[in-house]
Amino acid sequence: MRKYSHVIPVLLLLAAALWSISPGNAGAADFEHGLLWRVSKGATVAGYVLGTIHSEDARIDAVVDAVSPFLRESRVFALEINMDEATTRFMQQAMLLPVGQQLAQLTGADMYRAVSTVAHAHGLPDSLLTRLKPWALSVMLSMPPATTGAFLDIKLYRLAQQGHKQLHALETPAQHLEALENLSLDDQLILLAQTVRDYHDLDAINGALHQAYLRQDLRRLQQINDKVLARGDARVGALLMQQLVVQRNARMAARLREIFTTQSCFAAVGALHLPGADGVLSLLRAQGFQVTPVALQLIAD
Prior knowledge:
Distance between the termini: 34 Å
Radius of gyration: 19 Å
Strand content: 5-15%
Shape: globular
Number of strands: 6
Helix content: 40-55%
Structural class: alpha/beta
Number of helices: 14
Order of helices and strands: HEEHEHHHHHHEHHHHHEHE
Largest sheet: 6 strands, mixed
């Protein structure tokens, strides 16, 4: 797994939302446009929340440049999970089947042939493919193959380290993976079959996601995900919606409230955790914070 080890801690941040956002999460129209949000209590700025995307695209560097002054002025950098070596090891191990078990035993021969064709096209070696849990393979195939490992989340993490910021994780690694780990085998195979079926559309989907992200258009991000979700299993989508998004949003917002109350904080979470009536921004506002957008100068095309 060495080729992928540097990206696994952040691999789920966008992919989880990609499977899980549904039209039922729409709402809070004032949170439909903007990536960076100022969080205040009265006249006091408590900090900022940035919506991120799991991307190595060179255009994303403009986001780092635009938000770095706000990160520098904050005492704390908060992110969904830590990106240290211990977290990486935990995530790597969690993605693997128990010793002695292989993916083909779970999928059956016909499905495994279809899966291996797509996995090979994605650059996954057989030595890794055979050992992955179905949900983990779905996640990996849903994201563009890593080339540099210099993702937005990693760049922000390193910037925070260089600035000697206090680092706070909003979730433990186990909490981050809980919903996926608790999926039944049947549901994991449903997800995997859907990923394989839609694999050749992923470049177009990721391109549209990047364009919407750089336009700071959270509403459009939701619309793209609604379209993806509509093509999949409604029951599994609703289950993941509740566990991967709604429950995690509540947990992250509660943790952010604790931090914002005591220290200035710059927080980075997946962009699709921000909008909607159950989104992190609405939850922070319900906790008594004022949440306002900060305009960023980005080029989308």
